[in-house]
TrEMBL record:
<protein>
    <recommendedName>
        <fullName>Ribulose-phosphate 3-epimerase</fullName>
    </recommendedName>
</protein>
<dbReference type="InterPro" id="IPR000056">
    <property type="entry name" value="Ribul_P_3_epim-like"/>
</dbReference>
<keyword id="KW-0479">Metal-binding</keyword>
<dbReference type="GO" id="GO:0005975">
    <property type="term" value="P:carbohydrate metabolic process"/>
</dbReference>
<dbReference type="GO" id="GO:0016857">
    <property type="term" value="F:racemase and epimerase activity, acting on carbohydrates and derivatives"/>
</dbReference>
<dbReference type="GO" id="GO:0046872">
    <property type="term" value="F:metal ion binding"/>
</dbReference>
<dbReference type="InterPro" id="IPR013785">
    <property type="entry name" value="Aldolase_TIM"/>
</dbReference>
<dbReference type="Pfam" id="PF00834">
    <property type="entry name" value="Ribul_P_3_epim"/>
</dbReference>
<keyword id="KW-0413">Isomerase</keyword>
<dbReference type="InterPro" id="IPR011060">
    <property type="entry name" value="RibuloseP-bd_barrel"/>
</dbReference>
Amino acid sequence: MPFDAAHRLASIKIKDRAKILSPSIAKANFLHLGQDLDEIKDFVPWFHCSVQDGVFVPKIGVGSPIISAVRKKFPEIVLDVKLGCVNPENRIDEFVNAGADIISIHPESTQQFPAVINKIVSKKICAGVVLNPGTSVSVLEHVLGDVDVVVVMLVNPGWGGKKYISQAISKIEQIHELAANLGVKVPHISVDGGVSTSNSQIFLDAGANVLVAGGSIFSAADKAEAVASLLEPSPEIAGFE
């Protein structure tokens, strides 16, 4: 496996519930992508790469050439790829070869959901599942022991709009309960789709440990401070007493 893939894989597998910020590269300035990522690489262990095919997700987003370029420039960073496309089983090899460390898929995007999870695992990378606001936690029952990441979406990918915060909190709690009932380790629980300093602590308190954020980081004058504020929001910012 290229670069320091074994080290990156081992770091994902630890699951010590450490808080992780995974900046969404889709919100960076693509004319200066390398520079934007350079400014934050020392403060975050993961980069989030949201792939959108214009079919399963209405927008078209990051593709494998960009992920490959990011991998070459940042061999130490875990690339957290969320594959929003139909029939993801046809794209696994493409994104493994591009340098993905995690590939998360939507259960609704394939007719062979457990088989696709197994295919990802067979490539010696980490598998993940994406739960849209309308997706039940019950879909995890037969795969939770095989996945390292569950992504809880606050919005419907590509649509934006209303943020389903209370439903996301409930899902985070349900994932913990399901892991306990199945006797498996709790995976990394990631929250995506509108994480900010006003709500990040709520998700961490509920039991998530990975926060995906984009605009609030890349638009900040001090990106290091933006990262710190998301992981350790002050009581005043977070709205707590």
